[in-house]
Amino acid sequence: MKKNTLKVLTSGLLLGALALTISCSSDDNNKNTEPVNPVTDGRWITVAGALMQTDPGDGNGGTRVYSISKENAIDPNFSVNVYDNGMAVQSSRTARLQSSVDGNTLFNITYTGANGGEFMTYKVNGGKSFTESTAKVNISQYAGTSPRWNKIFDGDKTGIAVNVTAPVVNTNPDKTYKYTRGTATVLSLDMQQTLISAFKQYELPLTAEEEAQGHHIFRLDAPTLNKAGDKLIIGTWMRKTDPATGQNQATFTRLGSKSLIVDYPALTNPQIITSTVAFGDTSGFRSFNSFVGTDGNIYQATQRDTEKGSYILKINQNNQYDNSYVFSLDTALGVKGTYIDAWRYAGNGIAYAVYTQNGTDQGFLARLDLNARTATKVEGIEYDANLDFGQYQGFVVDGNNFYIAVTPVGKDGNIYVIDIPSGKVTKGAKLVNKPGNHYIGVF
To answer: Among candidates 107, 95, 76, 150, which has minimal Cα distance to 440?
Structure first.
């Protein structure tokens, strides 16, 4: 009897364990099919193209946009010609665009020219139909006619514009070099009410030793709101004055990567934090350059370190660099001289970055695992020697799909759609190009 009872109990335990295993596997499979990010039904995908002004790929001849459905974006038999069929966005040079999470609104601050610094919105209606807002506000008196800006991820409520006036050399009474500084502006923009909600201006001194050597902040860019919602992390672009001549030094030994931290929403209490891991700038170029990850920490890319290439840095929830987190893109990809032109966090520790390597301008796309600190070049993309992501601005993340526009300068290309959990690449709509032009994003 005891043996039989033991057999029954043993069988029951095995069946229970098997059922539990099947249940857990089923749950895991269900989790794998769940969207990584929210899905917006009927979302428009707005394609943006930059026109040549003087030189092929300079993008300074203005920007045109055209919107298509997600179904058309993923269809390789569908063609988009933004240059013949799109609408011109207000901007003397390359427009610096942002889009709402649902894709129904474009946000724009005019870059240079008579209307430089003017903020407006466009309602996306499909095709070349965009309704420009009548409400506008110009921030140029505070942040200049070519401000750098990003929306922050607060439900499309706020944009943050930043600027540094041309840094000026200051000398001691005996005319010896003292330091170089500009005046920084940090401005918050209410994008729903179309008005300036706050701004602050201040100098941003470095340490006395750093300033005596000529180091200074040349530009601010890529503001990001932390998870707690009480601090803005703003990227910096560093330069150095030669103390002996008072002139800008083209090459110099770089300091550790730096960011500006200010209180939010007050925009006060500016502080500089410094990484000991990397030595590149953290300002990016015309695109987001840092993101709050699923784990609540901020991940930030670096640029302009020709010696060690780009890094992904980690800023913890205490708003300080985590110098134990080391993620070199050179090391991860097994190449030299990487440079992240633009990148986007895609959820669950996965991100995608467009980059160059070995000192060339040819662009590539990499899939990054921020948790494992690994990177792989994305295959399935048609790479070309004339593929240049230097002015790239916009990626779309919707559900499990990551959208990117890939066109060599002056050549046709495609939208590519990547499944975020698996990394599977699908070649989507054809992007018809013009000589000297290139597509700079999807929004």
So the answer is: 95
CB-CB contact of 177 with 93 (8 Å): no
State which amino acid sits at residue 292: V
Let me know: does 265 contact 188? Beta carbons within 8 Å. Answer: yes
111, with CB counted inside 10 A (0-12, 13-18, 19+), is: buried
Residue 193 CA to its chain's centroid (Å):
25
SS3 76: coil
What's phi and psi for 14, nearest 5 deg?
-65, -45
Spatial distance between the Cα atoms of 105 and 195, rounded to a whole number of angstroms:
17
Strands 183-190 and 312-315: unpaired
Contact 103, 43 (CB under 8 A): yes
Based on the number of CB atoms within 10 Å of its own CB, is 373 exposed (0-12), middle (13-18) or buried (19 or more)? middle
pLDDT reported for residue 164: 97
CA 389, 292, 259, 151 torsion: positive or negative? positive
Structure tokens at 82: 């933004």
Give CA–CA dist 257/235, Å, rounded: 9
Residue 289's nearest CA partner among 302, 272, 274 is 302
User: What pTM does this model have?
Assistant: 0.91
The whole-number pLDDT of residue 92 equals 83
Let me know if 405 is exposed, middle or buried by CB neighbors in 10 A (0-12, 13-18, 19+): buried
Angstrom CA distances, 340 to 157, 287, 299, stand at: 28, 11, 13
Query: What are 68-118's pLDDT values in tens digits?
Result: 999 999 999 999 999 999 999 998 888 899 999 999 999 999 988 889 999
Q: Which helix (H) or strand (E) holds 212?
A: helix 208-212
